[in-house]
Design brief:
By secondary structure, the chain is of the alpha/beta class. The chain has a single domain (about 5-205), classed as Rossmann fold (3-Layer(aba) Sandwich), CATH 3.40.50.150. Helix content is about 45%, strand content about 20%. Strands 3-2-1-4-5-7-6 form a 7-stranded mixed sheet, with helices on both faces. Strand 4, helix 6 and strand 5 (about 135-145) form a beta-alpha-beta unit.
């Protein structure tokens, strides 16, 4: 699949998520065998924030992470630039339509930031990390989840077949084949692990760490605003 060029990426991604919003949650559960539920809960727990802390969920989609944050006693605020996703949201958290690269929040105004499976959709990861550092208070925490590839050769081969062949097929049957072909292909937007973690450290984050989830199918990246 040909991925959109940088100057058209934001428009293409927004239109894609608008189209798939009504069935997005259902497809996530089916395609991850509900493992995504546990991954999000691990992300919330990794924040290690006290009850009542304000946590910004960037690219909040239909509000999955917002609901998990609220259940943990935190105060979520969701931001997404897809009107379709926000219209399909199922959360009581305040939601704002905005660009992750220009967050409509004052500096140091949130205690935590989460982002679920959206890093590869941003036009500039470094710009997103800079905005995250700006709005996160000193000592605040972030937890980002995204896809990954297993390190073991056999697991990686199986994951590649499932992610590149099965996911687009099932997604095409139940939703939008073009969108679910983009989602696996978009992993090419992610930099190497070393480059990703280095970019976060450059933007003022300390204790940056990466843990693999689901036998390496996903990754959880965490850190603290220095």
């Amino acid at each position: 699949m040909t991925l959109p060029a940088a100057d058209h990426k934001a428009e293409a991604v927004e239109a894609m998520f608008d189209r798939i919003a009504p069935r997005y949650d259902r497809l996530n559960r089916v395609l991850t065998f509900r493992l995504d539920v546990g991954w999000r809960r691990k992300a919330v727990a990794s924040l290690q924030l006290p009850a009542g802390s304000v946590v910004l969920d960037v690219a909040c989609g239909t509000g999955d992470l917002c609901r998990d944050l609220a259940r943990a006693g935190l105060r979520p605020l969701g931001v997404d630039f897809s009107a379709g996703m926000l219209a399909s949201a199922r959360t009581a958290a305040p939601l704002v339509r905005a660009d992750a690269l220009a967050l409509p929040l004052p500096a140091g105004s949130v205690d935590g930031i989460t982002c679920g499976f959206a890093l590869r959709n941003f036009v500039s990861l470094d710009a997103f990390f800079a905005e995250s550092a700006r709005v996160l208070r000193t000592g605040g925490r972030f937890a980002f989840i995204d896809v990954a590839e297993p390190e073991h050769t056999v697991l990686r081969a199986g994951h590649h077949f499932y992610f590149r062949r099965v996911v687009p097929f099932v997604g095409g049957l139940l939703s939008d084949r073009a969108a679910y072909s983009y989602l696996p292909a978009s992993t090419s937007y992610l930099p190497s692990t070393d480059a990703l973690l280095a970019s976060l450290r450059k933007r003022g984050f300390a204790g940056v760490d990466r843990a693999l989830l689901g036998l390496g199918a996903a990754q959880l990246i965490t850190g603290t605003r220095a």
